[in-house]
Backbone:
């Protein structure tokens, strides 16, 4: 909720980006699969969520390093989230 609130307060009004902001930790924190996310919310929202999803099987420092490495290549929606 906090990420969506921050984006909304900053003037981001895209329903796709705001929905992805609400769902950004879904894959990491629940048993929801990418296929379920796509089926329920569509490819565009799921795509953003998947772009910002960390691989929890990796050590925390490696996950953080990958975030920095991938940041310049994110879609506009994922960069906002």
Residues:
């Amino acid at each position: 909720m906090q990420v969506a609130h921050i984006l909304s307060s900053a003037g981001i009004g895209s329903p796709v980006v705001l929905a992805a902001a609400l769902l950004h930790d879904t894959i990491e924190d629940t048993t929801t699969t990418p296929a379920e996310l796509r089926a329920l919310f569509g490819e565009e929202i799921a795509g953003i969520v998947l772009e910002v999803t960390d691989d929890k099987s990796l050590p925390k420092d490696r996950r953080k390093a990958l975030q920095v490495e991938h940041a310049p290549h994110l879609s506009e929606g994922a960069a906002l989230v």
